Structures are given as structure tokens and as C-alpha cells.
Amino acid sequence: MTQATNNKDVAIIGIGIHPFGRTDQLSGLEQGAYATREALRDAGVKWSDIGVAFGGSHDAGNADSMTNLLGLTGLPFINVNNGCATGGSSMMSAVSAIRSGMADLAVAVGFDKHQRGAFNPEPADYGLPDWYGATGLMITTQFFALKAQRYLYEHGISEAALVKVSQRAFRNGALNPNAWRRQPMSYEEIAQSMPVDLPLRKYMLCSPAEGGVALVLCSAAKARQYTTTPVILKAAVVRTRLYGSFEVFSPGIAAQAAPAPTVMAAHAAFEEAGVGPQDINVLQLQDTDSATEIIHMAENGFCADGEQERLLNDGDTEIGGCLPINTDGGCLANGEPIGASGLRQVYEICLQLRGQAGARQVPGQPKLGYTHVYGAPGVSAVTILQS
After folding, report:
1. In terms of C-beta density within 10 A (0-12 exposed, 13-18 middle, 19 or more buried), how is residue 308 classed?
2. Quick one: CA torsion of 115, 121, 124, 125, rounded to 10 degrees?
3. 55-70: pLDDT as tens digits
4. Is residue 265 part of a domain?
5. Helices and strands in the chain: count of H runs, count of E runs
6. Could you tell me if residue 83 is left (phi over 0), alpha (psi between -120 and 50 degrees) or otherwise beta?
7. Residue 78 lies in a domain
8. What is d(CA 139, CA 135) in angstroms, rounded to the nearest whole number?
9. Backbone phi and psi for residue 72, each to the nearest 5 degrees, phi listed first
10. The total number of structural domains that make up the chain
11. Does 280 fall in a domain?
């Protein structure tokens, strides 16, 4: 397939990753620098060639401090912090910089190193009073469990569907050398695992983790100067919540419901790319938990509400299916280092579109890929990529 590009298109010409999980001997910053060096090597360029960088983490320090490890070249390096959408926001910023002519080459990087145990967000960071946290409303597993219960009930989806999402995630993670959880799990192991907040159980929830991902970007018109396998960014969109949407840390039920930020981001991305859900060959969806993935299948436009269980039962979401989802194991198998998670999705789609995903390669030479990340207090980032 010949790439159809225009003068606004931006290409990813280099990708790099530090394996996810736990790496006690390296800081999060060092993992980000490792991923950046890998991306530079993949693109065949030097750090001194980069004209601008955008990056961020939640718990592992300021990304611009990476210049101490990569080289003090004087380039503008902008720190980005946008929750789970940090990676997507860094990439969107890099895209804008390339389109504006600010630089010929840009880096987007994300990394993190979270403490063991659950995330412990502070209400004040989200403009909320202390009592909101004291009453337990900052516990994300409660929110996602309540949202899951309501969604499953309203659309006639069984809890068996939650198990099948997790099964596929761990099965795919076992094929991914950079994943944290690389052991397939049986239906019974997942279905009978420790309850956390029902209907969600231990192996239906992702865990805080460590890791880093970096991308090197340039104008699509110049991409062939650097690589024979550029991936074209046809859309990179971020949207926040509207009044009346039901979101984590903002869980109000309005008399007039509003579209979720994911719905808005997906619509905007498809419009920008000039394609529809039916054109996508491989996709990555935010799977903070297995129910969240199910909800996001519909919110991103890939099925109708309630159709997800049939797609799971028919094997459509498997690597060899017609709608392969989270081929690298998603957050469930990789864990979630917040700053890196969205870029991990892009990294995986790049591998798939370049035909370099190994044992988890989607058959049929996929041409269009899709990524989606969602975070508090209601922000979504979506990209559409073309080989």
C-alpha cells in the first residue's frame, strides 16, 4: 500500500522501549533515557540532531532532566503531565511542533516508576476537597467496579466476558518480551481470583508499574530520508470531559448525560484521518480493568453497546481475529507506568504496521492502527496510524 500523505502529516521514524514491570536497579528517568537511546538508534539519528522534545512521568521526576543522561544540547524540552494521557499528550505536542516548523526532528518520551501497591491520588490535585478522599471516593477500583456493574446490567453482558478479556491479555502478554506478566492464565484462575471490588477481581485489574517508551518524529515528507518503514500519524487527538459525563474523580449522574471524552476523541480522530472504525486493522484500547476495555470498544466506535460479548466469544478480538485488540497484552499484562502507557500503545502499533511484532503479529499486513488511552479526571487521547 502506497502511503497517501499531505503536508500536515507527521511520521514516526524511530521507536524505543524499556521493558515494563519492575527494574529495581534503574530509576524511572534512566528507563526513559534507555528508551530514547533505542528510538534514536532505530531512527539512525543522534540526540544532537533532535530539535525539540516533549515528555513526562507521574512519579519519576521531570522528563527534561533526561538531558543530563542524553546530552546537554540546549534543545527545548517541555515537561508534560496529563495523567494517563501523558504519553498521548507528549506525542500530540511533538506532532504540533513538527507541523509548525519548530523543528525537523522531535522526540516524545514517557516513563514512570510507581511505588508498589495501589495508586494513592490526592484530592487536591484534582480540585477536590479532602473529604472526597476521606470517604473513599478516590479509590479508583470502586469507581471502575460501579461503572462496570452498571454497564454490564444495562447492556446484558455477563461477568464471563470480563474473564475472557483478561485471558486474552495474559495470553498476548506471554508473547511479548517487554511485558511484565508473561504467564497465560486459565479461565478458572481469573474467575476465582481474589475479589477486589466486584465484579472486578485481582486478575481483572492492571497494576502500577515501571517502564519507558520513546518515539522520534519528523515530517512525513522527509521520513524516507531516515527509514524504509515510516509510520504515518494520520490523527493525534486529546479531549477532556464535558459537563454531565461520568468520569473517574468526577462521578456525577447528570439529568442530561454528555458524551464521554473517549467518544469525542474518537470522532475527532476519525474525521481528521478520513477513515472509520471499519478501516482499522489493529487497535490498542485502555484496559485499566477488563470491564473498561469492554466499555471502550463501544465508546471508540468499534461495536454497539452490548455487542462485545459476542465478539469475545467468536474470537474476533484475538490476534488472528477481525478486530485484534491489545496484541501486546495491554495494561493488564504490561502494568501501567502512567507516563509511558500511551506511548507503549503506539510502540506496539508501529511494530504491527512494520510487520515486526513476531509471534503476536497480526496476519494480513495491517495498514491502519488505532490507539486509545483514558485517564482521570476524564481525558482521552486517540491516534490513528498508517503503514
Report:
1. buried
2. 80
3. 999 888 889 999 999 9
4. yes
5. 12, 11
6. left
7. yes
8. 9
9. -90, 85
10. 1
11. yes
